[in-house]
Structure formats: C-alpha cells, structure tokens
Amino acid sequence: MGKRARPTHAGTPATTVLTRAGIAFEVLTYDHDPGAGSFGLEAAAALGVEPGRVFKTLLVTTDHGLAVGIVPVDRSLDLKAIATALRVKKAAMAEPGDAERSSGYVVGGISPIGQKRALPTVLDESANDHDTILVSGGRRGLDVELSPTDLASVTRASCAPISR
Q1: Which of 148, 131, 133, 114 is CA-nearest to residue 40?
Q2: d(CA 91, CA 32)
Q3: Tens place of pLDDT for every residue, the chain, 164 residues?
Q4: Exposed e or buried b for every residue in 24-43, given b needs 16+ CB within 10 A?
Q5: Which helix (H) or strand (E) element contains residue 146?
Q6: CA torsion 135→139→68→99, rounded to 10°?
Q7: 55 CB contacts (<8 Å, ≥6 apart)?
Q8: Phi then psi dihedrals of residue 97, to 5 deg
Q9: Spatial CA neighbour of 88 closest among 116, 110, 66
Q10: Per-residue pLDDT at 35
Q11: How far apart are alpha carbons 24 and 108 in whole angstroms?
Q12: What is the pLDDT of residue 37?
C-alpha cells in the first residue's frame, strides 16, 4: 500500500506550485518498480485506487507546438479528439525526450502541474465524475490527489472528451 506524506515534504515543482496556489492536495507515495509495464496502472494498484481515478499526463505535438493531454490510466489518448479540443489539424504523441525537456520531468513522472513551460492543456471530461483524482506529483512513485476543478484551474486546462 502507499505511504502518505505531507505535501511540504514532497519537494517537486508540482507540489510547490500547488502549495503556493493554496490548493488542497494530498501526496501519495509508493515504491516504484522499474520493471512495471505501465507507470499509471502501477500507481493505481500500489495505491489501491481504481484506475479511472488515476490520470496520466501525455504530451502531444501539434502544428502549433507541444500540448498536454490528461487521461485516465486505463484509457488511451484519442489523438483526433485532443486535436479537436486544441483546435488544431492534428496531434501526434511527442517524443519522450521532447516531453522530458519541455516539462522538466522524466517519463513516468511527468506531472501536468509545475512544468518548465506552460502548455495548452486538456483534461479528459471523465475527471469530473470524481470528487478527487490522482496525477503524477513530479516523479515516479509520487502522486498528488486533488479535485479535478483545482487541477483544471492550476493548469489552465480545458475539459473535453479526449480518451477512448
């Protein structure tokens, strides 16, 4: 099971941004298994949370640059849907190195919060089915739990049906 830590001890850009913004959140930690096939599903299992409440942060490239999609870990990002939500012609998954350079986080620990550069962000509308959701807190083995409304506010995300 996951261990719970105080937000002030997490020490990531994501937790710093949340603390400074006065947003209520909880830090959840677990021992990351380097052999795990899916970072998000590993987090859900380790923390004992249904996968539909744990969201992964994915970077896409568009004709207008990089953007962020946030979808449940048990679903896939619908590239046509995120392109529509972003009002661009098409979207493709960003290369991992580009995602890491842009966000300042490593793959498997990319948080939608506190990225080096603010990017257009779309949160899957299914997040609104839950009082709280979990997203990466900025490193593997660390998630933050917060309300979808607060996540959308702090990331300036729009909400749209972008998962399948």
Answers
A1: 133
A2: 30
A3: 344 444 444 589 999 999 999 999 999 999 888 787 788 888 999 999 999 999 999 999 999 999 999 999 999 999 999 999 999 999 999 999 999 999 999 998 999 999 999 999 999 999 999 999 999 999 999 999 999 999 999 999 999 999 99
A4: ebebbbbebeeeeeebbebb
A5: strand 142-146
A6: -160
A7: 40, 70, 71, 72, 73, 123, 124, 127, 133, 134, 135
A8: -65, -40
A9: 66
A10: 80
A11: 23
A12: 76
- Measured CA to CA in angstroms, residue 133 lies from 4, 87, 90 at distances of 15, 26, 28
Q: What residues form DSSP beta bridges with 27? A: 5, 144
On the CB side of 90, how many CA atoms lie within 13 Å of its CA? 2
Cβ neighbours of residue 96 closer than 8 Å, sequence gap 6 or more: 107
**Verdict on whether the full-model pTM lies above 0.85:** yes
The first and second tokens of residue 74, run together, are 């048990």
Tokens of 47: 């923390």
- Residue 10, token pair as written in the block: 């997490």
**Rounded Cα distance, 72 and 128, in Å:** 12
